[in-house]
Design goal:
With 464 residues, the chain is mainly alpha-helical. It is built from 20 helices and seven strands. It starts with a helix and ends in a 24-residue tail after the last helix. Residues 11-19, 331-335 and 454-464 have low confidence and may be disordered.
Amino acid sequence: MRALRVIAAIVVVAGLVLFGLVAFAWRSEIPAEEVAEAAQFDPALIEKGAQLAAVGNCIACHTVPGSKAFAGGLAVPTPFGTIYSTNITPDSETGIGRWSEAAFQRAMREGVDREGNHLYPAFPYDHFIRVTNEDNRALYAYLMTREPVSAVAPPNELQFPLNFRPLLAGWKFLYLDEGPLAANAEQSEEWNRGAYLAEGLGHCGACHTPRNDLGAEDNDRHFAGGEAEGWQAYAIDGSSPAPIPWDRESLAFYLRNGWHELHGVSRGPMAEVTGNLGLLPDSDIDAIATYVSSVMGEPTPERRQRADELREEIEGRSRGLVAAADSQDSPTAGNAVAEPGAAIYAAACASCHEGSRPQPFGGLDFSLSTAVNAPNPQNIVNVTLFGLPPADGEASSVMPSFAGVLGDEQVAELLAYMRERFSNEPAWTGLAEQVRRTRTGEYKVSVRPADGIERAPINVGAEE
């Protein structure tokens, strides 16, 4: 009898806890409204919203390549399963066409949809909470004047209990900060504008900051590098692995054009970011560059010296001043080709990456490659296997896929050789296994064809 009482007490307590959780997580439904007519929105407000949507890279996550813009359904791989983006066109039945502005504001600030369901933080409302009401209003006006599309996203592929949305209320209690980003009175107006864009709609930290076991950003390691859709988002703080340190000018050029002569072209999810930033005025691009470069800080004297020496070496090679010395190390000369990785490099890579064609259409000298110098080789594995897709209808940098011609061991040998030759960093380990997992899809990587979402790098002073 006593055992039954204990069991009953446990059941009652569990029931009360569950009831409390549901009550804590409950959010009311906001009544539906009919879609507002486009004429009711100020054209200037819509134009502002278009720029803000570009900062947020909304089209990339909410569009399946080849399908209608903003119609959702894109698979977003996460460590917890696959989440599918939602339809944010003004369709009345399957999109946000019956959402009031109040419902839209709540989604951006609280991560709750019109019906009262908690949204997964794959929709980065932990950054969007910092966006002002005025900017949300402009973004709402822009989305409500897009083409309505009837489309239903597939169900998310999450295991229990992660598919139990009320649990997200607890996640928000732990990790969702309140209110917009406060201006820093000690910094310039441009710096504060850059911080607002980068930390708010730009949600740079969502990719470039490490996350804990519950998927929240580690604020103690802000911008120290993270992961996005199977790609490594490099550290953009003082620990950046770029061989040539970034500065405000190089960052601004890269964000504007999608490439930089000392850093190469954007790829993976970053290609979508730089493509969409083409809609922004130069002042906003400069502001983001000002803020991010300040987080990176000044390079140490030792790093600056190494960078200066590397610049001189690259410039010397381009002038042919060190041709004789290079010939001793070149994989195309002598018995260096006997090394398997060197032979593959000579056959598959050297003609572009040691050629005279300038960026963005020529291959980057791998001594300048962040991918080759990074602690994790995932990005160079991705690019080697899947290549760089061309932009739709515009001249752009292109790289072929080598997945069909190189086996796992061959790719590993190639990358090991490149790491040894073009970097002073320690050798990568487990390369063949990492290549295998990437090729088979065991390690999920989003490689999407360019369909106009990504913008081609602008040709500045290079050949057409």
